[in-house]
Amino acid sequence: MSFAPEWLALREKADAEARAVDLLDPLREALLNRTPLVVRDLGCGTGSMGRWLAGRLAGRQHWVLHDLDPRLLELAGASMTREGVTVQTREGDLTALRGDDFAGTSLVTASALLDLFTAEEVDGLAEACAGIPVLFTLSVAGRVELEPADPLDVVFQDAFNAHQRRVVDGRRLLGPDAVTAAVAAFERVGSEVVTRPSPWRLGPDQAALTAEWLRGWVGAAVEQEPGLAAEAPEYLRRRLDGVTAVVHHTDLLALPRAA
């Protein structure tokens, strides 16, 4: 699954403000004396995770950017220009990565990725990353708070969550169940796992993002439940009229017990 660069650019500021920075201290402690750091960014998009995290980690770093979309990889590779940081890109299916692909890796990271995996793929990812620190941010939590409230909010939320759990090409996506599955998977391979909330808080200063997110949220709900199509235009009109939103996500840090 690929995303438009314009959408990724629109959400980058909200993503950066939402990530749980209190997970960084234990991560940095786990990475002490590893130099240069070799960081693999899965589903890198245009490189926003690298732009956020590289400056928060010490020492020389080599980032390996993974994505299925060559257009995004080109943008990401060009944007990671920071002293002490080198970059290479890898195009391919993230679900096909195995333990050998992570040889020599200091840290595996990703943003807004886990909910696009199946339970089996999360298990495989945890096994492939066994013994390596992992930081996955901004996984969909399945909860949205809109203010002022509307009677149809829960209806559209439930339909959207069902869409997140849909079957795509024979794969049942985890959607809002991804973090629960990932916690269990990483604990099974011997990691200590900590999660933290990382909500988007969308107000008047994020009007463009709020509008684009709402259109996508309602559109996915209608795709899942076509019976909502009649109510969707008027509902969307009401919600676009000055609504504020808290869109809940979860960050996950998994550290090998030896770390």
Describe it for me?
There is one protein chain. This protein has one domain: Rossmann fold. With 259 residues, the chain is of the alpha/beta class. The radius of gyration is 18 Å and the shape is globular. Helices cover 37% and strands 25% of the residues. Helix 4 links the parallel strand 2 and strand 3. It contains 9 helices and 10 strands. The strands form 2 sheets. Strands 1, 2, 3, 4, 5, 8, 9 and 10 form an 8-stranded mixed sheet that branches. Strands 6-7 form a two-stranded antiparallel ribbon.
Under CATH at level 1, the class stands as Alpha Beta
Average pLDDT across residues?
A: 96
Shape: globular
Count of beta strands:
10
- Judged by helices, strands and strand pairing, the structural class is alpha/beta
Q: Which helices and strands appear, and what pairs or packs with what?
A:
Blueprint: H1 5-18, H2 24-30, E1 37-42, H3 48-53, E2 61-67, H4 70-79, E3 85-91, E4 107-111, H5 119-128, E5 134-147, H6 153-164, E6 167-168, E7 171-172, H7 178-188, E8 191-197, E9 200-202, H8 207-224, H9 232-240, E10 244-256
Parallel strand pairs: 1-2, 1-4, 2-3, 4-5
Antiparallel strand pairs: 5-10, 6-7, 8-10, 9-10
Helix pairs in contact: 5-7, 6-8, 8-9
Keywords:
single chain; 259 residues; alpha/beta; Rossmann fold; eight-stranded mixed beta sheet; two-stranded antiparallel ribbon; 9 helices; 10 strands
